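Troubleshooting log. The previous structure file for this entry was overwritten by mistake, so regenerating from the original sequence record. Sequence copied from the archived sheet and checked twice against the printout by T.R.
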Amino acid sequence: RLILRGWCDEDFADWFGICQDEQVMATIGPLRTADEARATIVAQQRDQALFGRCFWAMERKLDHRMIGFCG
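Regenerated output below.
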């Protein structure tokens, strides 16, 4: 049901939506601005390039939507 993968620039809209969900962010940190959400993606892309790993983006196979992260 899920694909674990590196982050891509196209994840921004889905990730920013997650970052604005008060119920979700209550467990992982404060709400994030658009700049903070973009910085998260950049940091994960950097870590993958430097170390070959990151907190993997979780993509739902059914509709290819980014729904979170793990790692």
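The chain has a mean pLDDT of 97. Archived copy saved in two places this time.
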